[in-house]
Design goal:
The protein is α/β, with parallel strands linked by helices and 368 residues long. The protein has helices spanning 18-30, 71-86, 145-158, 171-178, 266-279, 345-364; strands at residues 10-14, 35-40, 93-102, 118-122, 134-143, 162-165, 183-186, 203-214, 221-223, 235-241, 248-254, 256-257, 289-301, 306-314, 331-339.
Length: 368
């Protein structure tokens, strides 16, 4: 069946971040005869433009434990970890020896992730850095988000997925692109807060400021856990070596909830460098140099990520939209929401995409 055939179901993925592109990848693989269009203001090739208006290019993009155990999150992150582990031979993903340090005593409840990562163990006392009282070690994975997003785009291009650069203001505009028999996947991240028809006020940013460094002497992920060690001050200390380019390491950082500021704060940058240097003396290597400073807004949601179907009656009636044309017929239209992953977008991406695919198949009674 040709994708130009009007009878082919049209799936519009709204948003070209890691969740949107991963979902497009999974769905286009399962249903290759369907028509797929990714619609977004920012596209993967924009990473060289230094746009901070979307989060995916600036993410840490490794797998690390965030928060406590949640059944759905565990399933998503297990699927994603295994997928990324299987991709190591591609060169896009690297294995990463890791240590996470805790400023308070720990118990088994904190280690809900020990069956996801590889080589998990409790650190011996002499292995725990100064300033921490306990720690764990394991092997995880990391990637370079800017290279990874371009890989996803190239994969989708090869499958005939259409990319449309367009800023949309309402869910109805996306539905109009899909057509009455289509479906929209809403992966707009922070945009879900201001997308007419969604307007999810539970969505909020977590500001992250980082330093990109050339530091070939740093070859392990070192961290105090995000959101746990320094919440009152918004600090989050971590170092993430990347698979490429050689020697690139992301140094962080901040974890500042409800902070929309995209400007680099150089007092914060100095503090990041100081904290990372205390945790990893290898940064003192004479080869080390700073390559740049980044700020990104992690797209979080109070109550957790939203992955669910919602039927809309279109055309929308909203004070912010022109009134429907006289005599316009109402029709029901399916939107599947997938947003609000906060700091865990990359590490839950493939699992989230599979979850969307399950909802998609259930509503259309499909067998892949």
């Amino acid at each position: 069946m040709s994708q130009t055939d009007e009878s082919v179901p049209h799936v519009v993925i709204l948003g070209a971040g890691v969740i949107g592109l991963s979902t497009a990848h999974v769905l286009s693989e399962k249903y290759p005869s369907y028509k797929f269009t990714v619609v977004a203001r920012d596209l993967p090739e924009d990473v060289d433009l230094n746009s901070q208006a979307w989060a995916s290019p600036w993410a840490g993009a490794n797998w690390s434990p965030i928060g406590g155990y949640e059944e759905k999150k565990y399933k998503r992150e297990l699927i994603t970890f295994n997928k990324l582990w299987d991709m190591i031979s591609s060169g896009l993903i690297r294995t990463l020896p890791s240590r996470i340090c805790y400023a308070e005593p720990v118990n088994d409840a904190k280690f809900w992730y020990k069956d996801i990562v590889r080589d998990f163990r409790i650190l011996d006392e002499e292995e725990v850095p100064s300033g921490a009282v306990a720690g764990v070690a394991f092997t995880t994975v990391s990637l370079n988000p800017q290279l990874y997003l371009l890989w996803l785009r190239n994969e989708l291009n090869a499958r005939g997925v259409i990319f449309l650069r367009k800023r949309l203001y309402s869910i109805q505009e996306a539905a109009e692109i899909a057509g009455p028999q289509g479906v929209v996947i809403n992966a707009t991240a922070l945009g879900a807060r201001s997308l007419i028809g969604v307007e999810d006020t539970a969505v909020y940013p977590i500001r992250g400021q980082t330093i990109l460094a050339y530091a070939p002497g740093v070859q392990e992920f070192l961290a105090h856990p995000l959101g746990l060690s320094s919440v009152p001050t918004g600090e989050a200390t971590y170092m993430i070596p990347r698979p490429a380019p050689h020697g690139h390491v992301l140094l962080g950082g901040t974890f500042q909830e409800d902070n929309w500021n995209l400007s680099v704060d150089f007092d914060t940058a100095r503090d990041i460098w100081r904290r990372c240097l205390q945790l990893a003396p290898a940064l003192n290597d004479p080869e080390t140099r700073i390559l740049g400073h980044n700020v990104g807004l992690r797209p979080a949601r109070r109550g957790g990520a939203r992955i669910e179907a919602q039927w809309y009656s279109l055309p929308l009636e909203s004070e912010f939209l022109p009134p429907p044309a006289e005599g316009a017929e109402k029709y029901d239209f399916l939107v599947i929401h997938a947003y609000g992953f906060g700091a865990a977008g990359y590490q839950g991406s493939w699992g989230a995409a599979e979850e969307v695919a399950e909802i998609f198949a259930e509503h259309f009674k499909l067998v892949a």
